[in-house]
Amino acid sequence: MKVGRGLSSVFFFLVALAATSLAQQDAARFVQAGRPDEALAALQLRVQTNPNDAQAFNLICRAYFQMDRWEDAIHAAEQSVSLKPGSSEYHQWLGRAYGRKAEAGGPVGALFLVRKLKGEFERAVALDAENLSARADLADFYTEAPSIMGGDKSKARQMAAYVAQRNPVQGHAILAHIEEKGNKTAAEAEFKAATRESSKPAEPWVDLASFYRRTGRLDDMQSAVDQAMSSPQHEGIALFNAARLLLAAGRNFSGAIQMLRTYLALPVDRLSEEGPAFEAHYSLGLLLEKQGNMQAAVGEFRAALSLASEYKPAQDALARVSR
Question: Which domains does the chain have, with CATH numbers?
Answer without folding.
Answer: 24-128 (1.25.40.10)
